[in-house]
Design goal:
6 domains, P-loop_NTPase, nucleotide-binding, disordered N terminus, ATP-binding, Rossmann fold, alpha/beta
Length: 1104
């Protein structure tokens, strides 16, 4: 806590705030910048108040127009600026003075008074003469009021100089003064001027003091406010003194030895040996993430350890650090495994993995995890996959299917409920950790005292919704604190600022670039920042530029930031929040601004004090902190779980069974939406469906082993019958590839059309963030002041690559292929040329590489499931993309059709956009994300299909989109490629017509076509089914020779794969080339009489 002490001469810089008043600014270096003005005065009442800030002289100076003389402070500021300009113009001023003196000497006998204002040029000469004159001269015979009027530029009566008068000393010293060198004459005149100013200042100070004393005697309110101000000023100075005393004890950092064990490893190893489950609850920075896995690895050569982290950054960083401690390269005994990147082999005995990768390993090795010790680090975060993983490991331990030890590590975990969850197992808890370095805690009241700001929010603030004014007030106080630290601490002591979300990170970054006084090294840290950027920033050391990390909650990780001494915590976070009553929040959980938990405060505070003493600044009153919840709500309750549900179907026939035995469980609404999504995509089929027998794939061994014990355990919890599902060939395909179900459908469409390589790339692109950026790292300095221009330049670059279509996806696909061409042409020696190519096109090279890595990962997983006709030459793929771009656009639309929007209001420019759209299958309004570059502008009446949707308030924010001008084209693409349709044939006076229904979630749309179009659609869907059946046979009979497989196809009356794919592409092209001539209209249809089913069936004859 910030204490109180004796005053000091210099105080902290006063931060300024909207809604945060500043009590003092007199202790701040005048060069410090702030975000507002701290010297506002109530000119209406004309009284000084403590809350207005500044000392009494400042106050009186600002009221000068109402007094008899001008404020001394304003005058001194004006004179000070004149001094600065005079230094650079001394030579010119000296020549001007000589000329003026000569003219004055020529008129030495003149005694008349000037009564007419001089021309402006003459006034300038006279002004220069007055500024350069000595203590004597015309100014001596001038009253104070005359001098003030003259400074204001008004004409006054002045006595003309005679030949005996002029600049410099008078009397006997005149000859000595004239004989001086010109430089010494200037110094003499300067000293005389300073003396004159000193006398004037003393006079004005005395006048101000008399006014102050009079007010103190006659005005009780003035006296009370002044005394309050003095108390606040003293408190601020005392807080500054205390901070300086604490900071003076800062140790010298030894970066070569930043990790030291603060936990009793022998005791921990003994507990692990004697128990099934061990909780390790120690302070952050105690070394458990590195020390415990390393100690277990070194127990013997037979140990195989896995340690999970919730985030990729921490996974790679800690693995690298442990390998360094063992003096070996990462990938030998110590390795890491994250999505799309694996460093290690079968000889690796200590794996650092993301929690999701461990779940996939458990699915592939049912009931027998291939590890002797499983460590779940940062366990308090409890991501949805961790909930399932813990449930599976608990079952294995209870049924004794494998011999392993489970270690759960966290700094903030409450173990009471978890000990009951592991009933029947031997459970122990280790809770010993002494802090290695002192941490000084400052809460909101201490911070406001330190920076001179007022804060009057009640302790019940945490019970309120975080609105914009409150956010602004806290942010402004944080800015004042940053100014203070930047002015008073050493540059090599870094600052970590926790902000709620990416938007706040970018806003604070822009403010720092223009408002901070000393040089800084700003490091944004959020989900869109490449891992390599953070790793490079952590290693970077600077003696003259202070490093400032601007981070979201992503920085709450097991990473030591050795140079961070100060943590500024806004105690806010943006996390998904689901409302049962709002379907849109279940489909796309919105990021809601909310207060963090006490556990998160402990995590953020633990970023410091690891290698040296630290300072934790909590922007919340200490009384309000006690009202925070102990822990966050389990993320599984506020997350979309369609991908997790699909993976869980490898375990049991309904995800409800596995979710029912988890410690934290998803909402029923989330499970229902997930199952609906998977059914619409054709990934699963209800076991009661008559078509299920032919659609289901062969039982996988993993389900056989897991299902029995999961269902036995679930029957003790769920006492009602639940539907059972079978997963199809499509579901099995999507289970294997490392993308979510919607992008995964693009891979399936690629197999249907023979465009496997292109659509695998499309899946990687839609699963990643766009590499186009309005402000690439290399162009920050050029574009920081022209955000609109930078955005338009990036969008123009996208339009050059979109293949003539209005699709962000196609633009990124072409950019990736062109990037591959650049890599091939320039080779390893042309890295600089490739980098320049990316910069010129507003592309992030790291994000392009990330897309290529994911693309290769998808191909790697598919290779073990089904043969892939891969096209490796980027030039061939570019030609293919240009020709097939309309088909690619159609397939990307259908994959994300559940997110489709219809534009009801269009905009004009990036800077002034009013574009608005309404959901087609979800009743919600949407607007474009103006922070994300796009090659298209929304136009009224057209269909927009975004890849990324996030709910903000009552509106969706849409990005990474494709635009379709023709409604017929949109509806036709749905009818052709949607997995399951209901339809019926009707007739009227004009003949037959078809009515189809398309349903997503709870919304059903009806489409009417003419008879020829309806029959053509059904025929095309049969061709898709034929391709799917060939793919299924190819997957099941990979051991057959070509002639044997051809014979098998003949037995099922199927064409060879390439012929069937060619038929699909040809028919699709015919449809869309003549789309305007087709009859496809959306209609109202109230009757429940659509009893025919059209499904893209992959059922094989004779299967049961």
């Amino acid at each position: 806590m910030g204490g109180k002490g004796k005053g000091v001469q210099k105080g902290p810089p006063a931060g300024t705030a909207k809604g945060a008043k500043i009590t003092s600014n007199t202790c701040v270096n005048s060069n410090n910048k702030s975000s507002g003005d701290s010297s506002h005065v109530n000119t209406t009442e004309g009284k000084w108040t403590a809350s207005q800030g500044g000392d009494v002289l400042n106050w009186l100076a600002q009221l000068a127009p109402q007094q008899q003389s001008r404020g001394a402070i304003d005058y001194l500021k004006k004179e000070n600026s004149q001094k600065k300009s005079k230094v650079s113009k001394s030579a010119a001023s000296a020549r001007l003075v000589d000329s003026t003196v000569s003219k004055a000497t020529a008129s030495s006998n003149a005694t008349s008074m000037t009564i007419v204002p001089k021309p402006r040029s003459s006034q300038n000469v006279q002004k220069a003469q007055d500024q350069c004159g000595g203590a004597s001269g015309g100014a001596e015979g001038m009253s104070s009021s005359q001098a003030i009027e003259r400074r204001r530029g008004a004409p006054v009566l002045t006595k003309a100089k005679t030949g005996d008068e002029g600049d410099g000393p008078k009397g006997p010293k005149r000859d000595e003064y004239v004989s001086m060198p010109r430089s010494q004459q200037y110094l003499s005149r300067h000293e005389a001027k300073a003396e004159r100013l000193r006398r004037r200042f003393e006079k004005m100070t005395n006048e101000a003091q008399k006014c102050h004393e009079e007010a103190m005697r006659t005005d009780p309110e003035y006296k009370k406010n002044f005394q309050t101000y003095q108390e606040l000023q003293a408190a601020q100075q005392a807080a500054h003194t205390t901070f300086c005393e604490q900071y003076s004890k800062q140790e010298n950092l030894n970066v070569t030895n930043i990790i030291s064990e603060r936990i009793d490893i022998p005791v921990i190893l003994d507990l692990i040996e004697q128990h099934d489950v061990v909780f390790i609850c120690t302070d952050t920075g105690s070394g458990k993430s590195t020390s415990v896995p390393k100690a277990l690895l070194e127990l013997s050569n037979d140990t195989h350890v896995v340690s999970t982290q919730p985030r990729r950054t921490a996974t790679v960083s800690i693995a690298t650090r442990v390998a360094e401690l063992r003096r070996e390269a990462v990938g030998e005994d110590v390795g890491y495994w994250i999505r799309g990147d694996k460093c290690g082999d079968v000889q690796t005995r200590l794996w650092y993995m993301t929690s999701y990768m461990l779940l996939l390993r458990l699915l592939s090795t049912p009931l027998e995890p291939p590890f002797t010790h499983i460590i779940l680090d940062e366990f308090h975060e409890r991501q949805p996959d961790i909930e399932v993983t813990v449930a599976l490991l608990r079952l294995c331990l209870l049924r004794r299917t494998a011999a392993f030890k489970l270690i759960l590590m966290s700094a903030t975990l409450s173990t009471e409920g978890w000990e009951a969850y592991f009933a029947g197992l031997k459970v122990a808890t280790y809770k010993q950790s002494e802090p290695k370095h002192l941490i000084h805690d400052y809460f909101m009241e201490d911070i406001c005292t330190l920076v001179g700001a007022e804060y009057n929010e009640p302790p019940s603030i945490t019970e309120k919704t975080v609105d914009f004014p409150l956010m602004e007030k806290h942010t402004t106080i944080a800015k004042a604190l940053l100014l203070y630290l930047n002015a008073y601490v050493h540059p090599h002591h870094a600052i970590l600022v926790f902000l709620p979300g990416r938007a706040q990170v970018e806003e604070m970054k822009m403010w720092l670039e223009t408002a901070i006084q000393k040089p800084v090294d700003i490091v944004p840290w959020h989900s869109a920042v490449d891992l390599s950027v953070i790793e490079e920033a952590i290693k970077r050391r600077g003696q003259y530029r202070q490093k400032i990390y601007l981070a979201t909650d992503i920085a709450e990780v097991s990473i030591t930031l050795p140079d961070v001494v100060f943590v500024i915590d806004l105690v806010l976070v943006k996390r998904p929040k689901v409302s049962k009553d709002n379907l849109a929040t279940v489909l796309h959980p919105p990021l809601v601004m909310q207060w963090i938990s006490k556990g998160s405060i402990a995590q953020r505070r633990g970023r410091i004090g690891r290698v040296q003493q630290g300072f934790y600044f909590c922007l919340l009153p200490s009384t309000a902190v006690t009202n925070l919840s102990d822990h966050i709500q389990p993320p599984i309750e506020n997350s979309g779980i369609d991908g997790l549900s699909l993976q869980c179907l490898q375990l049991v026939s309904n995800p409800v069974a596995i979710f029912s035995i988890c410690y934290g469980q998803p909402l029923v609404e989330s499970i229902s939406i997930a199952m609906d999504t998977l059914s619409n995509l054709g990934c699963i089929i209800n076991r009661k469906d008559p078509l299920a027998v032919g659609e289901r794939t062969s039982d996988v061994e993993t389900r056989e082993k897991w299902s029995r014990i999961i269902l036995e355990e679930a029957t003790n919890v769920v006492h009602a019958d639940i539907d059972e599902y079978e997963y199809t060939f499509v579901g099995r395909l999507l289970q294997l590839i490392p993308v979510s179900p919607l992008p995964g459908m693009l891979v399936l469409y690629g197999f249907f059309t023979g465009l496997e390589s292109l659509m695998i790339l499309a899946a990687a692109v839609t699963s990643s963030l766009s590499p186009f950026s309005a402000d690439p790292l290399e162009q920050k300095r050029q574009t920081r002041h022209n955000v609109v221009g930078a955005m338009e330049a990036a969008e123009n670059s996208m339009r050059d690559m979109c293949c003539g279509m209005r699709s962000d996806i196609l633009a990124v696909m072409k950019a990736v292929l062109l990037f591959r061409v650049q890599l091939a042409e320039n080779g390893e020696s042309g890295a600089a040329a490739v980098r320049r190519w990316c910069i010129d096109r507003h592309l992030s090279q790291d994000k392009l590489k990330s897309i290529l890595d994911l693309e290769q990962h998808i191909k790697y997983e598919l290779a073990n499931f089904i043969p892939v006709h891969d096209v490796s030459d980027p030039l061939v793929l570019l030609t293919q993309l240009e020709k097939a771009s309309p088909i690619v656009l159609v397939m990307t639309n259908v994959a994300f059709v559940s997110q489709a929007l219809e534009v009801v209001m269009e905009g004009n420019t990036y800077a002034k956009t009013k574009e608005t759209a309404m959901g087609i299958f979800v009743d919600v309004a949407a607007v474009p994300d103006i922070h994300s570059p796009s090659c298209l502008r929304w136009q009224e009446g057209e269909i927009i299909v975004p890849v990324q949707l996030s709910l903000m308030g009552k509106k969706m924010i849409a990005s990474f989109s494709t635009a379709i001008a023709s409604h017929k084209q949109f509806w036709l693409s749905i009818l052709l490629l949607t997995y399951k349709l209901m339809y019926a044939v009707f007739a009227d006076d004009e003949g037959e017509f078809y009515v189809f229904s398309v349903k997503h979630f709870s919304t059903e749309r009806y489409l009417e076509t003419d008879a020829a179009t309806g029959r053509g659609i059904l025929l095309f869907r049969q061709k898709l089914s034929a391709v799917g059946k060939v793919l299924r046979l190819l997957q099941e009979h990979q051991d057959l020779y070509d002639d044997e497989f051809a014979e098998l196809l003949q037995g099922h009356e199927l064409k060879p794969l390439h012929e069937a794919q060619r038929d699909v592409v040809t028919t699709m092209s015919t449809f869309f080339n003549n789309v305007e001539g087709l009859t496809i209209d959306e209609v109202e249809h109230d009757e429940d009489d659509l009893d025919e089913v059209s499904m893209i069936s992959l059922a094989l004859h004779g299967r049961s």
